[in-house]
Amino acid sequence: MFDLLHQLCQVHAPSGNEVLMKLFLLDYIEQNSYQWKVKPQVVQGVEFQDALVLVFGKPRTAIFAHIDSIGFMVRYENELIPIGGPEAKIGYQLRGRDTKGEILCSIDQEEDHHITYAFDRNIERGTELTFDCDFRLDEEYVQSCYLDNRLGVWNALRVAETLEDGIIAFSCWEEHGGGSVSVIAKYIYEKYGVQQALISDITWITKGVHHGKGAAISIRDRSIPRRNFVNTIIQLVAQENIPYQLEVEAYGGSDGKDLQSSPYPFDWCFIGAAEANVHSPDEKVHLADIDSMLKIYQLLMKKL
Q1: What are the strands of the beta sheet with 203-204, ordered from one edge?
Q2: Quick one: average pLDDT of 140-151?
Q3: Percentage of residues in the chain having pLDDT higher than 90
Q4: How far is residue 39 CA from its own chain's centroid?
Q5: Topology of domain 3-69+136-303, per CATH?
Q6: Which of 223, 219, 130 is nearest to 178 (CA)?
Q7: N- to C-terminal Cα distance for the chain?
Q8: Hey, is 242 helix, strand or coil?
Q9: Which of 26, 153, 202, 281 could bond to 145 as cystine, CB 3.0-4.6 Å?
Q10: Model pTM?
Q11: How is domain 72-131 classified at the CATH fold level?
């Protein structure tokens, strides 16, 4: 069941260079959508850049899942600058490629906000590096780099298997400021009248959100979604006795913030499993929370 997740976690797609993930998704959809309950219309093109939209039946609600990841970019000499907010510890293994070939290097030091790499040659400036994938699965947990947000993408693809009416939007740049959601929002609102969205993303383990207690339904982070919509979601999930946790945070953000700041009247809610070891090579999620997340999305895409 998690072979797909393992494959997703290995795709090199830092913010701003999501093209390999787009190609992976297009190939996966072509190879598998004939088995889905409804074969979607695949919407792509220069106007969407590397984002991708799947349209099923007569959509009422959209799932947004960002396909980019955090990482690093080579600056000058052996200095690295972050893409998004990665954890940077000495010894972390990084992968990439420049015109001279494949790269497997390590973080050499992190001091006074200056990060450097150790490698047997100079890496060309502008090269993007991402965490080397060490995928681990046991009876309770999955652990890997980039569960944020390859797990959100995995969830959306699993929902696609039985989805009859809805939209799945794979967005870009979320980890480094956003940028594609407003384009997608315009398209799905003006063409289909869709103005409800679920954010399929991964949140954090905190003092109020714990492993194994169900996916987190976020009442707020830095942004505040419309409470009536969130309450409707909570009520539907509670009626089905699916385990869930309520999240209330002052910080953090997602594709929801771009929907809220768009000129379109979107209701949205972040719903996702929580991870430990955030933005590191060792992100860790409880399998029960993944199961809860998938069941919640399958329910809401039918009921909303």
Answers
A1: 136-137, 141-144, 283-286, 274-276, 203-204
A2: 98
A3: 95
A4: 23
A5: Aminopeptidase (3.40.630)
A6: 223
A7: 27
A8: coil
A9: 281
A10: 0.97
A11: Elongation Factor Tu (Ef-tu); domain 3 (2.40.30)
